[in-house]
Design brief:
single chain; 153 residues; 11 strands; three-stranded mixed sheet
């Protein structure tokens, strides 16, 4: 003698309905999950507005330097939106207007910036000085994941 509940659970219709329910639940879960965005983010934990420049390798012994990213106090800004490779180096330089407060490096890594205007340079070994650009000492950051946040204090 079979119990009615066991008959329902073992019926072909219940198996089809259960399978459809699993598919629908899986599909709804897949639409909710978003992939992580790869990025280098700088957060300003100071009480001053910071202007940030970033430099990084673009292949063939060439380096890109770009800025200025304006980051108000207690805010964050993405300065590199491409996938980061753990172990790679990125370089940052920052300060306030007038360089009264400067966030710079001492590793000997200098890159071209424009002191007042937005810029996006690719270093090709020709040096700085064109269009008012000048060298600044950048701070070295070695990323340890595809997403990395650096905090200014």
């Amino acid at each position: 003698m079979k119990f009615p509940l066991i008959q329902v659970l073992s019926s072909p219709l219940f198996k089809v309905v259960g399978c459809l329910g699993s598919i629908i639940a899986s599909a709804s879960f897949m639409t909710v999950v978003e992939p992580a965005q790869a990025q280098l983010q700088v957060c300003n934990r100071s009480n001053k507005t910071a202007y940030i420049a970033v430099a990084y390798g673009v292949g063939n012994d060439r380096w890109r330097s770009e800025g200025w990213f304006e980051i108000t106090p207690r805010q964050c800004e993405i300065v590199v939106e491409t996938a980061l490779t753990p172990g790679d180096y990125y370089y940052l330089y920052g300060g306030d207007r007038g360089d009264n407060w400067v966030w710079e490096g001492t590793t000997g890594q200098n890159f071209c910036v424009h002191p007042t205007d937005k810029f996006n340079y690719i270093a090709t070994g020709e040096g700085c000085g064109r269009n008012g650009s000048e060298l600044r000492p950048f701070f070295e950051v070695r990323v340890d994941s595809s997403n990395y946040t650096m905090n200014l204090k």
